[in-house]
């Protein structure tokens, strides 16, 4: 057996004990899970970017039904379509079941639409944050799992030395190699997970800020029949989120 085979992964796996193998399998499962979440969320972000302009196309539509069709075509199954659909359904429900033109009736209408928009934003927020807890947990715990494999590998090496009575290279190199590889595996799992978590979190903050602004415009339109005009010189909320400025509560009104 040549030296490359003696210190290869197959040889290290063959000579390792059950604990080292369990650590390696745990890291493998964590890596597969994190990469699945990274790829699935990256594809979702790509689809979300393709929806750019759908909101302005909605406001450019001649009526509400046409605007909803535009969102269904240009941003299907997006939080923006769900928000508009929820607001339209709430407004239609109020028109059907409210027959009073009193001040109390108008306040109830405003409250129903507000609650519907907030509910839609809450559901969209939960969907956007799905999987982030797992990704953060993998990024924070994988180095320690690898470190445990390192410690156990060194312990394994010391046991072999004590049994053989000789601190020869062939008795030490294998277990120490296991220890170093476990450390490398832990970092290989953790680093992509941490970077992806930070990137996805930032993208979610931007999207939720845009969704929050769309909800305020929808609420104003359902309440007054007109969209709130943009204030000249006002900083875009998405830019504030991108720089880390808190966007505030993601409510509708």
Question: Explain this structure to me?
Answer:
It is found in: Cell inner membrane; Membrane. Keywords: Cell inner membrane, Cell membrane, Membrane, Protein transport, Transmembrane, Transmembrane helix, Transport. This protein is mainly alpha-helical and 253 residues long. The protein has one domain (20-242). Helices cover 80% and strands 0% of the residues. It contains 10 helices and no strands. The N and C termini lie far apart (73 Å).
Which key terms come to mind for this protein?
mainly alpha, 0% strand, rod-shaped, 253 residues, 10 helices
Order of helices and strands: HHHHHHHHHH
Helix content: over 70%
Number of H/I helices: 10
Low-confidence stretches: 1-5, 234-253
Q: What kind of sheet is the major sheet?
A: none
> Tally of extended strands?
0
The termini sit apart by 73 Å
Percentage of residues in DSSP E strands: under 5%
Oligomeric grouping of the chains: single chain
The tally of domains stands at 1
Mean pLDDT: 78
**What is the overall silhouette?**
rod-shaped
SS-based structural class?
A: mainly alpha
CA radius of gyration is 28 Å
Membrane topology: Multi-pass membrane protein
Pfam families: MotA_ExbB (PF01618)
Main location: membrane
Subunit structure: The accessory proteins ExbB and ExbD seem to form a complex with TonB.
Short note summarizing the structure:
Its main location: membrane. The protein has 253 residues and is mostly helical.
Q: Can you lay out the helices and strands and say which pair or pack?
A:
Elements: H1 3-6, H2 9-15, H3 18-50, H4 54-60, H5 64-74, H6 79-97, H7 103-128, H8 132-164, H9 169-224, H10 237-242
Helix pairs in contact: 2-9, 3-8, 3-9, 4-5, 5-6, 6-7, 6-9, 7-9, 8-9
